[in-house]
Amino acid sequence: MRPFKLVSRDYKAEDTVIKIEGPGRPVFVGQGYCTNIAGSCAVESPEQYLELAQILKASGANMLRGGLFKPRTSPYSFQGMGREGLQILDEARRITGLPVVTEIMDLHDIDCLYDHVDVFQVGSRNMQNYSLLDALGRVNKPVLLKRGLSATIEEWLLAAEYLLSGGNWQVILCERGIRTFETYTRNTVDIGAVVMAKELSHLPVIVDPSHATGKWRMVTPVAAAAIAAGADGLMVEVHQDPDRALSDGKQSLTPENYLQLLSRIEAIAQLQNKLIQH
Ligand code: PEP
Ligand code: MN
Questions:
Q1: What is the pTM of this model?
Q2: How far is the CA of 211 from the centre of ligand 1 (A)?
């Protein structure tokens, strides 16, 4: 048997579909759906985030992203609004009816985030934070589990196993590029890992083409490749003014570019028999 058990196709052959009960209509991830998650890297201010949230809702995004707790390489970089931004997420959910996903870095934040978010994101840097995974295994809320910066597919699936074995089966895997010798791109996007993870596991697999490339011009082509390879959706960074973004502006699409991305993937999703939810 595989080292991961509950996560494997041997244990459960049919695709798992995650139902996200947001403030409005439920959103589905997996199997016959192509799910579009979009938002800025970080929640920057009420004005910035609420304007963007409305634009994204009108564009056809199914779920909003936005970090409050940002894992930054430098302690001098913008660290996110933290708890102060929770009301902004509430308001974004209320005015758009869309569910939100935000990163949790510390298991002690579960309680304070619980009523404000629809999906907990475990970032790359925390993929092997086993006490965080243990704690999220005991909550009744979906988890978006990013692949670690240099995690093998097996390590990634074993990280998911922590969640399932703790009792939480609502897990979405997210490929976001891995670290290689290449320097022209921020990470090396591993499209093969999408195919392999879907073969090995029944869990849905989405792709984050923003962190995978680090360059906005590469985001739409890589997004198209991901959907063509069978990914169940995308998580994309969008900002209304990328040059002034407080983090990851270089890889952020403008709302106009995001509309182009959505129209580019529509036909590809159809070929894959995947429904884009509107
Ligand atoms: C993010 O999505 O906000 C993020 C920090 O990404 P990653 O964990 O993939 O680096
Ligand atoms: Mn980012």
A1: 0.98
A2: 7
Position 86 scores a pLDDT of 98
Q: Is residue 50 part of a domain?
A: yes
Q: Provide the pLDDT confidence category of residue 32 given band limits of 50, 70 and 90.
A: very high
Q: For residue 101, give the CATH number of its domain.
A: 3.20.20.70
Q: What is the pLDDT of residue 278?
A: 85
Q: Is 152 in a helix, a strand, or coil?
A: coil
- What separation in Å is there between the alpha carbon of 57 and the centre of ligand 1? 22
Instruction: Give the angle 35-41-43 at the CA atoms, nearest 5°.
Output: 105
Q: Is a pLDDT exceeding 90 seen at residue 23?
A: yes
The answer, yes or no, to whether any atom of ligand 1 lies below 6 A from the CB of 186, is: no
Report the Cα 254 to chain-centroid distance in Å.
18
Q: How many domains does the chain have?
A: 1
Mean pLDDT of 109-137: 98
- Which residue range forms the structural domain that includes residue 56? 35-67+81-276
CA distance 248 to 186: 11
Q: Report the atom number in ligand 1 closest to the C-alpha of 121.
A: 2
Any domain includes 199? yes
Identify the pLDDT of residue 4.
Answer: 97
Minimum CA distance residue for ligand 1 atom 9 = 124
